Amino acid sequence: MNDHIFGKLDEYLTNLFSLEDDILKQTEASIRENGMPEHSVSANQGQFLYLLAKLCRAKRIIEVGTLGAYSTLWLARALDGNGQVTSIEIDPNFAQVARKNIQLAGLEKTVEIITGDALEVLGQLSQKDKEIVDLFFMDADKPNYIAYFDWALRHSRKGTLIIADNVIREGKVLDENSKDEKVRGVRAYNQMLAENRKVTSSILQQVGIKGYDGLAISMVN
Ligand code: SAH
Ligand code: DHB
Ligand code: MG
């Protein structure tokens, strides 16, 4: 099969739906210009997250792993009026780039970017108030995915969506003897989802301009 067909299809769909405005394009450009890893979700994946946020009528969203705030923008745009996104980023330089992109989008009242290790920051958020999260998106620190899931579940309602990126890893997830801690992390996560009766889950394989990976979507029962 033509190696590029999936990438071409991704471009075709992105153009067909005019998915990226100047703010999103500028956000991607800022990531390249600052030499940050090109690990943002694609436009099509962003649109899918946007749709999921709409489906669960999200008002309160938490994201683990901001990078340049590309996925953050998609999630924030799905909120109507009084919603709030908190996105956690461990790298202070990345967080600065992300804050600038959020400002450019005029979303600084809707989005808070907190610098720090996500597990620590979530621990602090728990102490502040026992808030309920409508959508939790984890996209960093794969070895701790189960810990993020447990936190999300403790702050969930019936219907809350808990979403995890990169759970297929070019199919490396098939290797039960993998020494790669990211692969081991998502393997353990997928296994946990399969056994967990508190959520209903579906894992999607995804291909496109960002390669071959997958998204785990779980709804709290
Ligand atoms: N969600 C973004 C991409 C995130 S890439 C998007 O789709 O646009 C993963 C990010 O998580 C990187 O910026 C990395 O610095 C950050 N990260 C890694 N470990 C982390 C941790 N323990 N806590 C918070 N952020 C972390
Ligand atoms: C990696 C992380 C991501 O969030 C992503 O979308 C792609 C790759 C990584 O750490 O390899
Ligand atoms: Mg990712």
The H/E string reads HHHEHEHEHEHEHEE
Helix percentage: 40-55%
Gyration radius, to the nearest Å? 17 Å
The distinct bound ligands, ions and cofactors come out as: S-adenosyl-L-homocysteine, 3,4-dihydroxybenzoic acid, magnesium ion
Query: SS-based structural class?
Result: alpha/beta
Main sheet: strand order? 3-2-1-4-5-7-6
DSSP summary, beta strand count? 7
Return the average pLDDT rounded to an integer: 97
> How large is the count of helical segments?
8
Shape: globular
Major beta sheet summary = 7 strands, mixed
* Fraction in beta strands: 15-25%
Low-confidence sequence ranges = none
End-to-end C-alpha gap? 40 Å
Textual characterization of the structure:
The longest helix is centred in the last third of the chain and has 15 residues, at 181-195. The protein has helices spanning 5-16, 22-33, 43-55, 70-77, 92-104, 118-128, 145-154, 181-195, and strands at residues 60-64, 84-89, 111-115, 135-138, 161-165, 199-208, 211-220. It has 221 residues and is α/β, with parallel strands linked by helices. 40% of the residues are buried. The termini are far apart. The mean pLDDT is 97. The chain contains eight helices and seven strands, in the order αααβαβαβαβαβαββ. A seven-stranded mixed β-sheet has the order 3-2-1-4-5-7-6, sandwiched between helices. The protein is globular and about 40 Å long. Strand 1, helix 4 (70-77) and strand 2 (84-89) form a beta-alpha-beta unit. The structure holds S-adenosyl-L-homocysteine (SAH), 3,4-dihydroxybenzoic acid and magnesium ion. Residues 39, 139, 165-166, 182 line the site of 3,4-dihydroxybenzoic acid.
